[in-house]
Design brief:
The chain is an alpha/beta fold and 406 residues long. It has 3 domains: 197 residues, Alkaline Phosphatase, subunit A (3-Layer(aba) Sandwich); 62 residues, no CATH class; 95 residues, Gyrase A, domain 2 (2-Layer Sandwich). Helix content is 34%, strand content 17%. The chain is built from 14 helices and 17 strands. Helix 6 packs parallel to helix 13, helix 7 runs parallel beside helix 9 and helix 8 runs antiparallel to helix 9. The radius of gyration is 22 Å and the shape is globular.
Length: 406
């Protein structure tokens, strides 16, 4: 997405979001050290990128943005309602890999989704009970209510966003460098998604991880050099949405629930994510038996009402679950609706108890106040946009920039 106008302020802002770049991987690293001397850990939220990135982009908690985990309970508005017409088919046929691929493609075609869309391993017969939160491209205006891209559009600023919807990470750097050379925009937002996939598979191999980090270091330095050569003063920000926790083990949570004598979807329905299970109860018998069983397990815990409120998940309709069972850091639900075996690295554990969960924030411009949360990072971007709208001069921005040796 881009917006061009005829005038340009003295300072260019480059905002780079690297998915899953955790503080635990950077705290002792020389990654962009002299280029971005202000660097700190940032507490993420409970959940996955589908919830964390909307906080970065809007500054609002999940209960206000409506974005948290991908699936939420809403059978009335489910984009999978059409599956009910074939629900008479055997479950084994419905969940055959070819049928599942067809379900995904038909649903995408019927609804014209522009955002992130997957059905993972959710049983096809359960899909008609769920809606998805990311129907639109959240890196464009109108994709996420109240996002910074809406604000940029309203301000008539010259800006561009780059994401996996159009490019690979390498292509994003190439395209941004070309745009910077041509001095097309004042606000550049780069979302780099591939580091997350890499860490899911290779986070336990420290040498490979550091080599990958050095690759991003090189690309960012090259981009900064190009920007500085053609655009004058540069405000550079590098940040992430969460970290990545090495897997310690798996636990078969479904094997604890199946013997309880309850049926889905008659008595209850559940989504088994990789790090949490979310339950909706349709009678008191199901609620009592399931919560009783979960309360006796030591692989995780049922979130309390106070915890749900603290994490910004207190939806009035409990769309993301009547009860949420959160696994201990490093322990995955295996099998889950995300796969039979979990990856070697995962995120989505308690951000207050998992040291690997912390995100990062690095910049060459001293923030006006401490940056501790994803909401604080959003505030930095929003204030930068306000500076564009107010026509802040290069001198005003230069006064707040940390000196960088080039």
């Amino acid at each position: 997405m881009n917006q061009e106008t005829s005038s340009a302020p003295a300072t260019t802002g480059i905002f780079i979001l690297i998915d899953a770049l955790g503080w635990s991987y950077l705290k002792d690293s020389s990654f962009l050290a002299e280029l971005l001397p202000y660097r700190t850990s940032v507490q993420t939220i409970l959940g996955f990128s589908s919830g964390a990135i909307p906080v970065l982009l809007s500054g609002r908690p999940p209960k206000d943005s409506g974005h948290w985990n991908l699936f939420y309970y809403d059978p009335k508005n489910s984009p999978f309602r059409w599956i009910r017409w074939v629900s008479f088919l055997p479950k084994s046929l419905l969940n055959h890999r070819i049928v599942r691929r067809g379900v995904r493609e038909v649903t995408h075609l019927l609804n014209k989704f522009g955002g992130y869309f997957q059905i993972y391993g959710v049983p096809v017969e359960l899909l008609p009970y769920f809606d998805i939160c990311e129907k639109k491209d959240i890196y464009r205006p109108g994709g996420l209510p109240g996002s910074l891209f809406d604000r940029l559009e309203q301000s008539k600023a010259r800006y561009r966003t780059y994401s996996y919807h159009e490019f690979s990470d390498r292509q994003i750097f190439d395209q941004a460098a070309s745009d910077l050379k041509a001095r097309k925009f004042d606000f550049y937002f780069l979302y780099l998604a591939e580091f997350d996939a890499f860490l899911h598979d290779r986070c336990k191999f420290e040498g490979e991880v550091q080599e990958k980090i050095r690759q991003y270091d090189k690309w960012i330095r090259e981009l900064y050099a190009q920007a500085s050569a053609t655009n004058g003063p540069i405000d550079l920000f590098v940040f992430s949405d969460h970290g990545m926790t090495p897997k310690r083990g798996g636990y078969d949570l479904l094997a604890e629930i199946r013997p309880l004598g309850l049926k889905m979807p008659t008595d209850y329905i559940a989504i088994y994510d990789s790090t949490m299970a979310r339950f909706w109860f349709f009678n008191e018998r199901a609620r009592s038996r399931i919560l009783g069983k979960l309360g006796a397990l030591d692989c995780g815990r049922v979130l309390t009402v106070d915890e749900i409120k603290k994490f910004g998940l207190d939806f009035s309709d409990n769309r993301f679950g009547d009860s949420i069972f959160l696994m201990n850091p490093g322990t995955l639900i295996e099998p889950s609706f995300m796969g039979t075996l979990g990856p070697e690295g995962m995120h989505g554990f308690d951000p207050e108890r998992d040291p690997h969960s912390s995100a990062v924030f690095l910049t060459n411009r001293a923030p006006e106040r401490p940056v501790r949360t994803l909401t604080d990072v959003n505030a930095i971007m929003q204030r930068w946009i306000d500076g564009l709208r107010a026509g802040a001069s290069g001198a005003e921005r230069q006064n707040s920039r940390i000196a960088v040796s080039q």
